[in-house]
Amino acid sequence: MIEVKHLVKSFDGFHALDDLTMTVPTGSIYGLVGPNGAGKSTVLRHLCGVYRPDAGAVTVDGAPVYEHPDVKARVCSIPDDLYYFTSASTRDMMRFYRGIYPKFDAQRYEALREAFPAVDEKAPIRRLSKGMQKQSAFWLALCCRPDYLLLDEPVDGLDPVMRRQVWSLLMNDVSECGTTVVVSSHNLRELEDVCDHVGILSHG
Questions:
Q1: Which of 19, 96, 116, 165 stands the most exposed, by the fewest C-beta atoms within 10 Å?
Q2: Rounded to 5°, angle at Cα 152 from 141 and 7
Q3: pLDDT digits (tens, 9 = 90+) for 9-23
């Protein structure tokens, strides 16, 4: 279970998050909605341990995330602005992820090649289209077998067929493996189809 209690985060005097409290039940798909600048991405960066809270607490199954590698090893994130090593291909990143995620499933990587047939796994990711980059990101993230998957505007750039494919894979992991998914999106119709719970964020 993810618990955020009285979380505060400021940047140069601007309160991005102001006394935020939220709970995400284990094995659920939790939608985080709100206008631009509401603080959605800031919440996700706390959940994956990128940001240190100014005040309050962010815990996963009772353990703090920030500077706790054992907790981070159970969390995988697909940010809105993807970043990979310069010139790294999907296969290069697979080898990297395999070294840092203890549950990385190499067999699933090979199996999922059929789910993402258009992705050239040997081509540098930065040279792929935005949609192909997103497909590569999902391919890698699903193979990490995370207990917690954090998605920031995850299906932007994907065509309708691939959107359905990705959501089907995610929902299968939730039902079969108990994966907990937190997804930030502006597409309320899409969240309505897949989410168990929705949190509305406004002004942090």
A1: 19
A2: 110
A3: 999 988 899 999 999
**pLDDT at residue 45 tops 80:** yes
Residue 200: CB atoms within 10 A of its CB come to 9
pLDDT recorded at residue 28: 95
Answer left, alpha or beta for residue 26, where phi above 0 means left and psi between -120 and 50 means alpha: beta
Phi, psi dihedrals of residue 51, rounded to the nearest 5°: -100, 145
Question: Where are any strands of DSSP class E within 25-158?
Answer: 29-33, 55-60, 63-64, 75-78, 148-152
β-bridge pairing 180-184 and 148-152: parallel
Give the separation between CA 178 and CA 27, rounded to whole angstroms.
Answer: 4
Q: Tokens at residue 83, please?
A: 């970043």
Q: φ, ψ for residue 175 (rounded to 5)?
A: -75, -35
Closest alpha carbon to 6 in 21, 16, 17, 26: 21
Cα–Cα dist 199/24, whole Å: 9
